[in-house]
Amino acid sequence: MSGEKVIMVDGLTKRFGAFTAVDAISFEVNKGEIFGFLGANGAGKTTAMRMLCGLSMPTSGKARVAGYDVYQENEKIKRNIGYMSQKFSLYEDLTVKENIRFYAGIYGKSDHFIKEKTAVILKQLFLEKEANKLVGSLPPGWKQKLAFSVAIFHEPQIVFLDEPTGGVDPVTRREFWKMIYEAAEAGITVFVTTHYMDEAEYCSRVCIMVDGRIDALDTPQALKKSFNTASMDDVFIKLARKAVRTGD
Amino acid sequence: MKQFIAFVKKEVHHIWRDKRTMFILLGMPIVQIIIFGFALTNEVKNSKIAVLDYSRDDASTSLIREIGASRYFEIDRVLYNNNDIEKTFRGGEIRLVIVFPPHFNESLKHYNKAQVQLVADASDPNLANTLTYYAGAIIMDYQKRITQDRKLPYTIHTEMRMLYNPELKGAYSFVPGVMAMVLMLVCTMMTAITIVREKEMGTMEILLASPIQPVKIILAKAVPYLLLSMVNIASILLLSVFVLDVPINGSLFLLIGESILFTLTCLAFGLLISSSTDSQQTAIFISLVGMFLPTIMLSGFMFPIENMPLPLQIISNVVPAKWFYMIVKDVMIKGVGIGAVWKETLILAGMMLFLLVISIKKFKIRLA
Q: Contact at 8 Å (CB) between A184 and A32?
């Protein structure tokens, strides 16, 4: 790890009226890291992530993503990140190729780049025969993997994944994580929210949010040691018990 | 630009994939023109009527001949007494009976005064009105002519003149109406739906997290529907000129220009709807209630605005379709130029800009 910081967050806060969704969180993410963002439903994970992606304006605090300020340089941030939301985000009435072309197109990639990379990705995903089929006709696992490939198609510095494996079977989840590792090895920093604790074990470092605050941040091994538990699951349960907020 | 083109292509794919919707959008104007032009026509053509002639003299016979010769009526049968009238109406085929009292010629020639009775089946009041009106006009014509020939002192003269629509052609008023309706539907509703759909699917979030500017998203969504509307305008105009014989008296360019202006107004309205709701159902509902109904009710297309109570007349001013309807009627049928419709055009352009500015401002770049 180079030690270069791609995300720097200091006292970042988001309030909706009287409700503080994210309460002065601070952390840093290194380049090439797989940074896990854990928390129960309603803990503020998605809100925090959306502020970093430029989808939501912070109430206060500082944050820099890919070297750019979230308040001032929103446009530049957007060029350097990829984003995959909780909802499935490809167009079901477009073919596999059309989806890739569209998303690559709105990131301003050249036709040549799109053509070459599309071939590579289709091969990786074993989707060569399905290239001209509608995305709606693919099995859910494939769709999810395709969505991830599309999110990193433009070779962003950082990719934000918001609960990417929700509703996906265990085999696909494993394959999906393999893809995340490959992306990280290629130098893409991965920022992932999840509430599957076994997935937390795959992360370089995890940060556990409770009631809008960060209660713990370290490598999975160190966390297990300091909480004196056998698995991340137990770490999480110990922390989550303190939560006052109920899930949404 | 590249981003923009990629986006427009995607929108075209969406429309193209949903063949059923596409055919409805393209077929709707054709179906509406045909329905309004042929099925819902309120003009009279070769209507079958009956005569009950108690006189059987020169005057009545020639008048009957004249009525039968007109292209509005066809003398279907001759009745012999009053009781036959109701019987005939019950048959349903005949809706007007012309009754000549005895000594028609004699009273006309000697007393300069004669009577004809028009008995209509008023179960369809509109049709009954039209039929008696037409028959009355023919009788007036006849009366006028024989009066002149004989140089008799009494002349009963009723002037009837239908400005711009001498033959009372229904098509003249509904072609502009159908145009307003179709453009409204395609542009307002479809724009609203297509943007709200992205919100519902969650793809809007991805788009907003991408470097494409929101203005480009909005414009790229509008372009395909603008093109679709152009096709619709063309098919409406072609049908009305070649099938319904409604002429385009004014400048075709002006007409098309005004249509584009109205289309943009509708697109802007659709945009406004889409930025104020997150569900497709709500978007459809708002488009129908907020735009479609006022277009039909308050544009002057179905019901004349002059006959409405004052509050409704005032409300009708904020309906863009009212101004468009006035413009199209003036340009297409009266054949006037921009000099006569600049006020309406300005109002429409103002509405368009107003809606566009609000909706772009309301379109949220950051979702929260």
A: yes
